[in-house]
Amino acid sequence: MGKVFRLGLDCSLLFSVPALHIGGGEWGGFAGVFAFPPVVGYQNKATETAQMNWTCNTFVPVNGATLTLGDIKVSDGFVNSVLTFLQPSGLGKTVYSEDLGKTVNEQYVYWFADDDPEDGEGWYFKADKDGEFNQNSRVISFGEGYYVQGTSKEIGESLIFAGAVKDTPTALEITTAQMNWFGNCSPTKITLGDITVSDGFVNSVVTFLQPSGLGKTVYSEDLGKTVNEQYVYWFDDDDPEDGEGWYFKADKDGEYNQNAREIEAGEGFYVQGTSKEIGESIVIPSAL
Fold first, then answer.
1. 10-residue averages of pLDDT along the chain (288 residues)
2. Are residues 257 and 228 in the same domain?
3. Which of 55, 77, 98, 150 is the most exposed place for a label (fewest CB within 10 A)?
4. What is the residue-wise DSSP string for 114-157?
């Protein structure tokens, strides 16, 4: 049956006990085969503000299927909050809906069975006022960032991510010289220093956001001023004064390493790419 281990107030993991097979048997032709079932669990990602809550999925489907919007469940009070996907420009994504016969914003609301949607419980375009055309099959790239526009009455309600913990690191590829929307797709807290980059990741910038959509700021004791939470990567060959890793963009001389900056499970951010770095990537570690 396995055991449930708490990884914090918002996350549980079920560790399956591995099966051990010796000799040929059902596996055939191998001696000493260990079969490790996936580590499965769930996570409640609570809405913290009536503005934009930046997040991403933290579990993959157990059966190896493609991650979709329908894999995201919600708490009972998640009624009027809206999940929104973004373009590289920072504007909301749009898509043409054959069902509705028009172009709509990629904004989704959750209809419970008690709401009597015509196409079953799940996610619908916000523009689909009668709940006619279920959008649960909308594919989500693992690590893709988005935000939930909360309401004042729904602070503390949650998206519920469930499935398997991805057992390999996740490379998030820069596909545009604008904003690449990502997040910490691990179900555990990591640090900025846990994120590695490809060799050509030189001038791209990681940015964290406020609920207003503006960039976060923080007072740096080292620099003696308030700076934007924008980070660039310095390789050893760049000769930073405080070792390889992440530095404030404002730290022009690479003096004060920021690898210790914590990133919550499911916390969203974006990478401002450059035209020369399309195809480069950042890598989120596996929690296993």
1. 41 48 35 62 96 98 95 97 98 98 98 97 98 98 98 97 96 98 97 98 98 98 98 97 98 98 98 97 97
2. yes
3. 98
4. GG--TT-SEEEETT-TT--SB-TT-B--TTB-EEEE--GGGTT-
Decide: 70 and 122 in contact? Cβ < 8 Å.
yes
| Residues of the domain holding 33 | 1-37
**What was the pLDDT predicted at 17?**
37
**How far is residue 105's CA from residue 86's CA, in Å, rounded to a whole number?**
10
Number of domains observed in the structure of the chain = 3
Alpha-carbon distance 5 to 78, whole Å? 26
Amino acid symbol at 99: D
Tell me if 115 sits within 8 A of 124, measured CB to CB: no
Contact 280, 264 (CB under 8 A): no
Could you tell me if 239 and 274 lie in one domain? yes
Cα(248)–Cα(223) distance, integer angstroms: 10
Same domain, yes or no: 145 and 204: no
Claim to verify: residue 178 and residue 280 sit in the same structural domain: yes
Pair 76, 93 in one domain = yes
- pLDDT score of 21: 35
Phi and psi at residue 287, in whole multiples of 5°?
-80, -10
Q: Count other Cβ atoms within 10 Å, centred on residue 197.
A: 21
Backbone phi, psi, residue 253, to 5°: -100, 5
- Predicted pLDDT of residue 32: 43
Q: Are 183 and 265 found together in one domain?
A: yes
> Considering the entire predicted model, what is its pTM?
0.89
